[in-house]
Amino acid sequence: MENVVTHEDWKVCFAEAAPGLILFARQFVRSVADAEDIVQEAFVRFWRRQHPIENRALLFATVRSISLDMLRRDARRARREASAVAEADQSTAPQFDPTTESQQALSVAIDRLPAEQREVLVMKIWNELTFADIAEVVGISQNTAASRYRYALAALKKNLISHE
Amino acid sequence: MNDFSELEGELKRLRPAVPSADLMTRVEQALQQPPLADGPVRGAQAASLQFGAACRKHLRTLRAHVANPFGKLPNGAGWQPALPRRVNWFALGLGTAAAAAFLILARVDVDRAREKKPTLAASTPAAPQIASQPARTLLPDGVTRVVYNTSDDGLVFPSGSAAPVRRVRSRSQETLQWKDPGTGASLRVSYPTEEIEFIPVSGQ
Q1: Helices A131-138 and A56-80, interaxial angle, to 10°?
Q2: B98 to chain A, minimum CA–CA distance in Å?
Q3: Which residues of A74-102 are buried (b: 16+ CB within 10 A; e: fewer)?
Q4: Which residues, numbered 31 to 90 in chain B, qualify as contacts with chain A under a Cβ-Cβ cut-off of 8 Å?
Q5: Of the partner residues A19, A87, A107, the one whose CB lies closest to the CB of residue B18
Q6: What's the CA gap between B109 and B64, in Å, rounded?
Q7: Integer Cα distance of B14 and A156 in angstroms
Q8: Which of A33, A44, A160 faces B49 most closely, judged by CB atoms?
Q9: So what's the ipTM on this one?
Q10: Closest CA in chain A for residue B70
């Protein structure tokens, strides 16, 4: 029996995945608006190509690819306008909605992680991708993905303990 | 179990920021259009998506500038919505190399053409080259005659003669040869000949 994905399924899928996708995109671009643009472009491209809705690794790989493209494209311009616009832009908007002090501390600690550990952590914790999926998205081995995840947790733990 | 289960639980309780309502509306509008059945987003549709994102980004920048008028305006002056494009460095390099090769070849051709083009001073007809060379002296070097056929036509009586004569016809190939002792060059001329001979016949 054929599994038909309806228009409503895509909408629900996006509504569920959007927060995690934007969080993932923000590991590459600091601006919320840029991250939303990236996620929109990635999701619409994913939908137009009619990829299987369950293939989340491919969706994240698309987000990553578009983000890196944007970084490369904007690198020269960013050097020129690095000063004033960055101050006024909403790039420093928080990635999380912390409700307690400990969550606030955790959010700050996540920001301090190395980028390659942070992107693995984001895919694993808030998007529930497997290490196999993460390895496919990033282009690394599963062992490397698992190692980066463990290093990230260890660094977070160490950071939190030192601030207690 | 690992030592991080408590930390993982804490992390999962930390919720990502909620996306803006504007994003949900934009994606919902995009989903209203028919999807492509034949693969990737290309051409105008991809450009449209990227152009929309670029416009929104520049609008945000402008708003930021309005909020902070003493800050620098990006991109020099005014709003410059540039379509983001990926530079294909390989194609660019190949094209540059081809253009450089073409220019080099074109320059070589121009130089050759200039060399061929006669100048005003040289337009006077030059003296014949042969006049400046020493006169060639071809000396006769030999004559050969090869008779390859002889036939006897019998007795004939030439007009005004009472005695008969025998007419003999011979065909041959004659070759004349000249040689220049100075250069060693030689000239050879070869031609066929036919000779008719009348031999008196005694009437004893």
Answers
A1: 40
A2: 26
A3: eeeeeeebeebbeebbebeeebbebeeee
A4: 31, 35-37, 39-41, 45-46, 49-50, 53, 56-57, 60-61, 64-65, 67-68, 70-72, 74-75, 84-86
A5: A19
A6: 58
A7: 14
A8: A44
A9: 0.81
A10: A84
Cβ pair A48:B65 closer than 8 A: no
One digit per residue, the tens of pLDDT, for chain B of length 204 reads: 457 888 999 899 988 988 888 898 899 888 887 766 544 444 445 555 555 555 556 556 555 655 555 544 444 333 333 344 455 777 778 778 888 887 777 666 555 555 555 444 444 454 445 445 556 688 888 888 888 888 888 888 877 777 888 889 988 888 898 988 888 888 889 899 888 888 888 765
On whether the CB atoms of residues A74 and A141 are closer than 8 A, the answer is no
Do strands B165-179 and B186-200 pair parallel, antiparallel, or not at all (unpaired)? Answer: antiparallel
String of DSSP letters for B28-75: HHHHHSPPPSSSS--HHHHHHHHHHHHHHHHHHHHHHHHHSTTSPPTT
